[in-house]
Design brief:
Blueprint: E1 3-7, H1 28-38, H2 42-45, H3 49-53, H4 55-74, E2 83-86, H5 91-97, H6 103-120, E3 126-132, H7 136-142, E4 149-155, E5 158-164, H8 165-177, E6 181-184, H9 197-208, E7 219-220, E8 227-228, H10 231-240, H11 248-256, E9 262-266, H12 271-279, E10 285-287, H13 294-306
Parallel strand pairs: 1-2, 1-9, 2-7, 9-10
Antiparallel strand pairs: 3-5, 3-6, 4-5, 7-8
Helix pairs in contact: 1-4, 4-5, 4-6, 5-6, 6-9, 9-10
Length: 307
């Protein structure tokens, strides 16, 4: 059995995500710890668009539900993943999954990360715009003067761009005229951009207080786009990614080099699974959010890994 795990980031969370989660005994403790921070009614809160996209809520939710899902899944698999990667805040549960730090520490770090990011753009309205159909260079050239920055590089003709609300609105209008497909994400901060420099520095101080163990498997690092098992490199990259472009395209390439039999996305939605299938259609991929019961996830991994 050889499989990879991709941990989702923000913008795909929804009220019916991972519908089986609360019924799994192994997930109960982490869900309790998450609910202590967000409230027992976290699913109901997801029906409110403003709350759903609130950074302090979303980052803890994404981290907590992913950790709970992995806690439920890992006891039913005979082997641990061959490699893991996390998309944006998804790096926190990815690091915990690989044993770098404890799930409880990941939840605390998620809350600290969100608070620091919010503080970095306090008084400003910022966010992220998804742009498909144009290269990064073409987007930035077309939007010259709007001070956009590439936040996440997905592939050669798709990326997420950070900026102020006004700049993102103007950019979308301009880029549509060039044939691009644009969509505002449910994220209220200019993540992975120079706006986040104060948060990066402060989060680095937070990470210095957390012991980092050698991971049980390689981790694809957002900031560098390479695999690593070196605790010092992991620590530096985890803070660096807050204020620099996420090299997601390179992360996927690095995961593929491990020649796994299948790839599972852990979290809400199926965006990462779709990205994988577009790039590596010969390697099966699914999202946990596509299954109505946990046993369906386990069966799929076992079947896919056996081929």
């Amino acid at each position: 059995m050889s499989y990879a795990l991709l941990f989702s980031g923000q913008a795909s969370q929804h009220p019916t995500m991972l519908p089986w989660l609360e019924t799994e005994p192994a997930a109960v403790e982490i869900l309790r710890l998450m609910s202590d921070r967000l409230g027992l009614d976290w699913r109901s809160q997801l029906r409110n668009a403003d709350r759903r996209s609130d950074n302090a809520f979303a980052q803890v939710l994404i981290t907590g539900t992913a950790l709970a899902a992995w806690a439920a899944l890992q006891g039913q698999l005979s082997e641990r993943p061959a490699v893991v990667a996390g998309y944006s805040v998804g790096e926190l549960p990815a690091f915990a999954c690989a044993g770098v730090f404890l799930p409880t520490q990941a939840l605390t770090l998620a809350a600290q990360r969100a608070a620091l990011m919010d503080r970095s753009v306090m008084g400003l309205k910022t966010g992220l715009l998804s742009v498909a159909g144009l290269s990064q260079a073409a987007v930035l050239e077309a939007c010259n003067g709007l001070h956009l920055e590439c936040a996440i590089r997905i592939h050669a003709s798709q990326g997420l761009f950070a900026g102020t609300d006004d700049a993102l609105k103007q950019a979308a209008q301009l880029l549509i005229e060039f044939g691009a497909v644009c969509k505002r994400l449910e994220v209220q901060v200019a993540s992975h951009s120079s706006w986040m420099r104060p948060a990066e520095l402060a989060f680095s101080d937070c990470l210095d207080k957390v012991p980092f163990a050698t991971p049980t498997c390689p981790i694809a690092l957002n900031a560098l786009g390479v695999l690593s098992r070196k605790p010092m490199e992991l620590r530096s990259a985890l803070s660096q990614q807050i204020a620099s472009t996420v090299q997601w395209s390179d992360c996927l390439d690095a995961v593929a080099e491990r020649q796994v039999s299948c790839v599972l996305e852990i979290g809400a939605g199926s965006a990462l699974g779709r990205m994988w299938r577009e790039r590596y259609p010969h390697i099966p991929s699914r999202s946990m959010d596509e299954f109505q019961q946990l046993h369906g996830v386990v069966d799929w991994i076992e079947r896919s890994s056996a081929t």
